[in-house]
Every structure is written in C-alpha cells, then in structure tokens.
Amino acid sequence: MRPTRQTVLLALGLLVVAGLAVTLGETALSAAQYRDALTRPGSPAAEILWSLRAPRVCVAALVGAALGLSGAVMQGLLRNPLAEPGVLGVSAGGGLGAATAIAFGLSALPGAVQFAALGGALAAGGLVVLAAARFREPETLILMGVALSAFGGALTALVFNFSPSPVTTAEVMAWLMGSVANRDWSDALWAAPAMLAGLGLCLYARPGLLMMTLGEETAALSGLPMARLRAAAVAGAALLTGAAVAISGVIGFVGLAAPHLVRGGARNDPAAILAPSALAGAMLLVGADLVARILPTEVELRLGVVTALFGAPLFAAIAWRAARSWRG
C-alpha cells in the first residue's frame, strides 16, 4: 500500500472512531437529543456531546498522536523496534514531576501538576539530548534511557514512601495510571503549543531518520548535520511525550504499537511512517478510551491500564521476533 493511501485510510479510520467515541457513552442519547445537540447549543444533550465527550475525544487523539509520532521518531533514530517514549525515561520524568507536585499539595493550583509533569519530562529529555550529543551509538542511548527511567521510577517510589496521606497516595497513583476523563477544551489548548513545537522538531529531523538506516558512516558522509538532527529528534520526542504526560498522565505502549501497525505500508522507511504513526496512535487511544468508557464495570478502567493490557503482549511478541532474528 502506498504511504499516501495508507495515510488517507488512517485519517478516515480516525474520523470513524472519533465519531463513535463522541456518540457512544454511558448516557444513551435519542435521535431527538442528537438533533438538539446540533441545533440548540445550551441543551443538556449539547452539554454532553460538546462539553464532555468531544473534548475528551480530542485530548485522547492529541495524546495518541503525540505518543505515536514520538515512538516512530525514536524507533527510527535508535533503529530499534522496541524503542518507545518511555524507554528514554521521558515518561518517568513527567510522572515524577506530577507526583512531586501532588505530594507537595500543589494540585489545587490550576496547571501546577501539568507544568510540573512537563518540566519533569523536559528535564529528562534534556539529559537524553546531552547523552545523544555525547554518544552516537544507539545502544548507549537506549541504556542511558533505561537507567534514567529506572531512576525516575525510584524517585517516584520515594515520593510514595513519604506521601503525607492515603488521599495523596491515591491521587498520585491515579495520575500515574493515565486517563483523559474530565478533560476539557482548555487541556487541549494548553498542550497544543508544546506539541506543535515537538512536531516541528520531528519534521526538521525527518531527513536524518532515513539517512540513519544506511548506517552511521554513510550518514556522517551525507553532508547533513546529523548531530543537530539527532538532538532535534530526541528533543521533539521529549516535548511530545512531556505534553502528553502533562494532560493525561503516564500512558504506555502506544508509542510502541503505532509504528509497528503502519510500518509495512510505509515500506520500512522511518521518515515515511511519521504521519501514519501519529494517526494510528490517535486512533488507538481514542478507541482504547471508548472501550474504557463503555465496559460495564463498577469503576471505569484507567486508560493506561487498557493500553497496557494490549501493549504488553505486543511488546513480548516484538521482543520474541527480534530475538529470533538476532539468533539467525
């Protein structure tokens, strides 16, 4: 399948899934109520559709697109099918920032937890950028990311350990499990500038991703500023992931799954899968959030739990296939 055709099909698929997510929910609406929602802005049906469901779907699509795009960038940069935003420790840094803000009682201040999460993610991303400038080997960068992720997890566990109350502990745990429930249009607008900046950096680094597939030596001889492109790729992925963590909490495996779902259609070109990966990530997360909402459970499933349930087996399958290829 041609990449352009694949992108168009994914865009149509996203529209279909988003339409289902807006129309389906715990409160069933009749045809007359849908008509009211479209024609009477102040009606109860309009409030449900445009003030509750639509912004939630929009935030889920933004977060999924950001994670899918950053996953495609990291897999192309590191030439590793198991790479995803969390592997560089950016998600852990964002989670640590949010947990620290909540533990210090800052959650009552508007935007404080989000700023703390974005700050933590950017701090972790800054360390990764410094490592990318110092070490060219992708394996070294992965190991640095794993170490950073483990350290972020340890510090978050320390926050849990000294949590001032069970309520604070529950609040931190809820954030770390990820969700887009109760998000509104302001959350989408809040994350948009950071996501746009991350998108710009990723597009700037796009030529370097294709060159990296030819090897370090060939890339160095290409005349492209590879060190600058590599740093831009990491910084762009960090911004996208940080903004996603800031508005939704920690949601894993979307950055891993989305590039794999579209890689065959893009003929394994890491530069060509950026747009399809973003669309696939958005579609995955909107669909996962819809599943979390409509499952008949007493307590609504957290979005991060749903993505982990399908992402963890996929991760194992990819690792199994990679191990078999390494043996060969």
From TrEMBL:
This is Iron ABC transporter permease. The lineage of its organism: Bacteria, Pseudomonadati, Pseudomonadota, Alphaproteobacteria, Caulobacterales. It comes from Phenylobacterium montanum. InterPro entries: ABC_BtuC-like, ABC_transptr_permease_BtuC. It comes from the Bacteria. Keywords: Cell membrane, Membrane, Transmembrane, Transmembrane helix, Transport. It is found in: Cell membrane. It is a multi-pass membrane protein. The keyword Transmembrane applies.
